[in-house]
Each structure stands twice: as structure tokens, then as C-alpha cells.
Amino acid sequence: MTPFGAKMRALRAERGVSLKEMADALGVTPTYLSALEHGRRGKPNWAFIQRVIHFFNVIWDDAEEIARLADISHPRIVIDTAGLDPAATAFANRLSRTIDRLDGPALDRLRRTLEDALEETRIDPPA
């Protein structure tokens, strides 16, 4: 399941909306909507994201969160490490071969480690 798909499913459950009802309202098939939720379809386009936001009648921060989740929800990622440190290529390959064995807590730890490393390497602009 993608982050966008999980959010849609949670909003549907919270509001008591079936997959078929939502699909009909958005002008897509229930099969497409299910595939999108489960990560068997790529990242939705901007127009579809806007239809979802309007369907759930969310505003401001919630709408931005839905759009942000859609942006990070492509289930098949390509990482181009050409020209980078060999460690980057090794890391990307290792992650691609083993990510399916990592549970939620392990993925959260890796995400935090990545964010910490990025923060440490961030160069502040001169004042």
C-alpha cells in the first residue's frame, strides 16, 4: 500500500464510503482505485489528486498532506547513482533487494537516520 493509498483508505473508512461509491464519484473503476491504494498503479496525476481532495471536502493542511502523500507514492522508484560515490550505488542496490524484509519500525529508523544525515550535511547559506 502506498502512503496516498493508506490515506484514501483511512478517509473512506472514517467517512463510511465504499470503494465503489468513491470510484463512481471520481469517475474511475473500483479496480483502478483499489490498485492505486495497494500500490499496483503509479502516482496519480494532479487532476485526480484534486478530485480526491474535493471528494473528501478537505481544505488547507489536509489538502496539502494528501498532495504530499501522492507525490511520494510511486510504487516503482528508479534511483540513478551514476556519478555518485560507489557507496551510494551499493546502498541503493542493497535497499532495493532487502526493503521487503523491513518492518515499519525498521523503516522508521532508516528514515530518521536519513533525515539526520541530511541535516548534518546541510550547508547553511552565509548570513
Summarize the structure in words.
By secondary structure, the protein is mainly α. The chain has two domains: 3-71, 434 Repressor (Amino-terminal Domain) (Orthogonal Bundle), CATH 1.10.260.40; 86-121, no CATH class. It has helices at 3-15, 19-26, 30-37, 46-56, 60-71, 86-98, 104-121. It is elongated, with a radius of gyration of 18 Å. The model has no long low-confidence stretch (mean pLDDT 92).
Low-confidence stretches: none
Helix amount, in percent?
A: 55-70%
Could you give the order of the helices and strands? Answer: HHHHHHH
DSSP helical segment count: 7
- The general outline is elongated
Task: Write down the overall mean pLDDT.
Answer: 92
Record field, number of beta strands: 0
Count of discrete structural domains:
2
Which architecture of the largest domain does the CATH hierarchy give at level 2? Orthogonal Bundle
> Could you name the CATH homologous superfamily of the largest domain?
lambda repressor-like DNA-binding domains
Profile the largest sheet.
none
Radius of gyration (Å): 18 Å
The CATH topology of the largest domain comes to 434 Repressor (Amino-terminal Domain)
The CATH class of the largest domain turns out to be Mainly Alpha
Output the structural class: mainly alpha
Q: Calculate the terminal CA-CA distance, rounded to whole Å.
A: 43 Å
